[in-house]
Amino acid sequence: xxxxxxxxxxxxxxxxxxxxxxxxxxxxxxxxxxxxxxxxxxxxxxxxxxxxxxxxxxxxxxxxxxxxxxxxxxxxxxxxxxxxxxxxxxxxxxxxxxxxxxxxxxxxxxxxxxxxxxxxxxxxxxxxxxxxxxxxxxxxxxxxxxxxxxxxxxxxxxxxxxxxxxxxxxxxxxxxxxxxxxxxxxxxxxxxxxxxxxxxxxxxxxxxxxxxxxxxxxx
Length: 219
Known about the structure:
- There is one protein chain.
- This protein has helices at about 1-10, 15, 20-45, 50-55, 60-90, 95-105, 110-125, 130-135, 140-155, 160-165, 170-219.
- By secondary structure, it is mostly helical.
């Protein structure tokens, strides 16, 4: 149950549905499995067990897709967080104050909510290391994992500027990933547009051909 609770937290289920418990999660999976299994009765009774098992994995697949979508949406904000921390570290601003500015800047709701909890926890005089770990456990995102490592090391060593300079490659990787995602979206839009044009031309051709055939049959 503890592993399932951590899983629901890391993949954003608790953010979207705060009242979902591990028990409720398993009940949903069982119900989905039974529902898909019942559909299999109309196909072939022998398929029911296989379809039931496959159906139970549908919620897990949807959670995975949703988390990947969130991670893509966070890339721009994560890049911005690195920029803010690097600039303010050079100006001698404390990490806690930088995190507050990061909260005010980010736009992704899930990331913004987690940053707010992080800032509130630090303001309540909690251990920065513990609060950063709690923040990390709210995501399944390698870029956020690295960000949390930077925050923890900066607090331990006090060398925030040096650490951020050393992580310049990571920052470039985030920006490269963001650029690739943007290019991919543009390419998909172009492909969809081309497909729609092709379908339209094909539809016109079929309509014209059908119209000519109907005229030939009439005469």
